[in-house]
Amino acid sequence: MTAVRIAKTTLRCVDDYCSFYRNLFSDVRSFEAFKYLHLGMLSSLKRKSLPEIPKLVGLENPQGLQHFINTSPWEITELRKRRIKRLLRAIRGRKIFLIVDETGDPKKGNKTDYTARQYLGKLGKVDRGIVAVTTYGVLEGITFPILFEVYKPQKRLKQGDSYQTKTQIAARMVREIVALGFEIEMVLADSLYGESETTFIGELEKLQLNFIVAIRNNHGVWMPKGSRVRTNKWRKFDRTMSYGMVEERYKARNNIWSQKTKEILGNHH
Questions:
Q1: Which of 17-26, 135-144, 244-253 has the lowest mean pLDDT?
Q2: β-pair partners for 129
Q3: Is the pTM of this model over 0.90?
Q4: Tens-place pLDDT, residues 135-152
Q5: How far apart are CA 109 and CA 83, in angstroms?
Q6: Is residue 174 classed exposed, middle or buried when 0-12, 13-18 and 19+ CB atoms within 10 A define those classes?
Q7: Contact (Cβ atoms closer than 8 angstroms) between residue 35 and residue 7
């Protein structure tokens, strides 16, 4: 009987972390590819793509990682379950701040599912790319990913897909995070979610979660009883354009304060 080959070593921190998921992979090559992807994501590569990562880790055949993603015998749902379980064990019931946002990455062509012309936060403009709604936890100054889901534009839906807005996806993800057992101190989100009273804010209220969200200055809201609006002073900042030019601009924010907000924030300052 031929002995099972030991997986090649990489960085110790990568090897130690990936070892917790070893038995999810039926063959050693898949497990090695799993480690190589982590190595590439932690590297200083500007473009962390499947063509570039194999070069970094010294693979002769760059198709190996593509095979791992597309046809290797492993289940992402099982890996996610184990990651969430380890995360909950590390948190030990402590309350986290939950950040809801979306991440957009530029992508040429139409071969990648759900790529379309849409707003990409990384570029600060509309361009061709793919967008994912993401949720992060923050605990004692450490930020960590919890869940994410690719946004599917209506014009790129595949057979069997159902369209959901980003705010609908985010609301469903928050429900799932609560159901998984995470204790949430407060939810933080930008104006896309802050202005979604029915879908997103309504769900946070159903779950009885505290939240601080942004709204644009032309968006009207009903203010809580006893609250007031405070405008910060205008401040200078450098705005870097997508084409590299830097302009000096000014910004100010209107904050809605209530006694409840003061009590919540007072525990963390």
A1: 244-253
A2: 106, 116
A3: no
A4: 999 999 999 999 999 999
A5: 32
A6: buried
A7: yes
Q: Could you give the count of Cα atoms lying within 13 Å of 53 in the half-sphere of its Cβ?
A: 19
3-state SS, 105-158, equals: EECCCCCCCCCEEEEECCCCEEEEEEEEEEEEEEECCEEEEEEEEECCCHHHCC
Q: Which residues pair with 123 in a beta bridge?
A: none
| Site of tokens 């896309």 | 192
With beta carbons less than 8 A apart as the criterion, state whether 237 and 250 touch: yes
CA 37/CA 72 separation, integer angstroms: 14
CA dist., res. 263 & res. 265, Å (int): 6
Domains of the chain are 1-74 (no CATH), 93-221 (3.90.350.10), 222-269 (no CATH)
Q: Two tokens at 62?
A: 């760059």
Look at the chain and count its residues.
Answer: 269
Q: Half-sphere exposure of 91 toward its Cβ, with a 13 Å CA cutoff?
A: 24
Q: Which two tokens stand for residue 84?
A: 């969430």
Round to whole Å and give the CA distance between 144 and 98.
10
What pLDDT digit, counting tens, does each position of 196-240 carry?
A: 999 999 999 999 999 999 887 777 666 666 666 666 777 888 888
Query: What's the Cα-to-Cα distance from 100 to each of 81, 83, 213, rounded to whole Å?
Result: 20, 19, 10
Crossing angle of helices 63-70 and 28-42, in 10° steps, is: 110
Cα–Cα dist 85/72, whole Å: 23
